[in-house]
């Protein structure tokens, strides 16, 4: 779904990017001010990222990096107070319950 969404988004963003590039280039030539082209720089990074996600290898590289983190730095993935137990869930449920009266 994420790849399909990215490809669909890329159609619209690619059209916007193309029109913006043409318009900004025409404006820069007309006003003789190259600073008008400046917005193309961040837009090109967004376009490249979306293209890499939709048609490139970004998702595979992200998967490899995630697997690397799980293998080599698994301590970063631990919960702050450890695993949640059934008793912990019961304490939370009782504290949020308006009808439960503990004896």
UniProtKB/TrEMBL annotation:
UniProt keyword Lipid biosynthesis present: no
InterPro entries in UniProt: Plg-R(KT)
Pfam families: DUF2368 (PF10166)
Transmembrane segments: 12-29, 35-53
Domain of life according to the entry: Eukaryota
Keyword tags: Membrane, Receptor, Transmembrane, Transmembrane helix
Keyword check for Hydrolase: no
PANTHER family according to UniProt: PLASMINOGEN RECEPTOR (KT)
Protein's UniProt name: Plasminogen receptor (KT)
Organism: Grus japonensis (Japanese crane)
